[in-house]
Write a structure and sequence with these properties.
CATH superfamily of the largest domain: Response regulator
Helix content: 40-55%
Largest sheet: 5 strands, parallel
Number of helices: 9
Shape: globular
Strand content: 15-25%
Radius of gyration: 18 Å
CATH architecture of the largest domain: 3-Layer(aba) Sandwich
CATH topology of the largest domain: Rossmann fold
Number of strands: 12
CATH class of the largest domain: Alpha Beta
Structural class: alpha/beta
Length: 223
């Protein structure tokens, strides 16, 4: 796997790059937006690890520009900014995952592997429930005549909720389903993705498709 790393801190870049190479992958490090553009990092990589606080142009702006240009490479944001509004801004810009500094290298590598598996898994399957039709191959959701594009993370969350329509799915279950390993991190990270997903699918609705079951998790309304 070829991983692009956009990080202006050389110490962090060195440790992350070493860990990636020791895990058997290739890593190309650039220090700012200008270098990323010259190297076409987001287009040429299998996965990009992107710092938010960069000189000249922020990571969010780099990501927004890439998504506007049609580049769908999976991106993990790496940043010291960890509040819910900041995470929402990252996902709104098109991020697939978000890791707050300081972080464990093992966790970063696990997220890279999980994101790669999700991006490579393209079954030609449809899941239908509660008036929603999910195309797992194109990552698109049909709500009547309206088509909604989903990120890999949003697709994984909605896929599980649709398969358990009308039943409670805990945050822990969603975390383990989405990231593909025994999740030991905070489960409230799912809330960020759920909010983004609701913003996409609940347009013109008075009641959300996804119900919050306080103290337990979430459920997709059966009708």
């Amino acid at each position: 796997m070829f991983i692009g790393l956009v990080e202006d801190d050389p110490l962090i870049a060195k440790s992350v790059g070493t860990a990636i190479r020791e895990a058997g992958h290739q890593c190309n490090w650039v220090g700012d937006a200008e270098e990323a553009a010259i190297n076409d990092t987001l287009r040429k990589s299998d996965i990009v690890i992107l710092d938010v606080m960069l000189p000249k142009l922020s990571g969010l702006e780099i990501l927004q520009n890439a998504r506007a240009a049609g580049i769908r490479t999976p991106v993990i944001l790496l940043t010291a900014l960890g509040t819910i509004p900041e995470k929402l801004a990252g996902f709104d810009a098109g991020a697939d995952d978000y890791l707050v500094k300081p972080f464990a290298l093992d966790e970063l590598l696990a997220r890279v592997e999980a994101l790669h598996r999700r991006s490579m898994h393209k079954p030609t399957l449809f899941v239908e429930a509660a008036g929603l039709k999910l195309d797992l191959s194109t990552k698109r959701l049909a709500i009547g005549q309206r088509i909604v594009d989903l990120t890999p993370t949003e697709l994984s969350i909605l896929d599980m909720l649709m398969r358990f329509v009308g039943q409670v799915v805990t945050r822990k279950m969603l975390c383990e389903h989405v990231w593909g390993f025994d999740w030991n991190g905070p489960t409230n990270v799912i809330e960020v993705h759920i909010n983004r997903l609701r913003g996409k699918i609940d347009r013109d609705r008075t009641q959300s498709f996804i119900q919050t079951i306080r103290g337990r998790g979430y459920a997709l309304a059966s009708h």
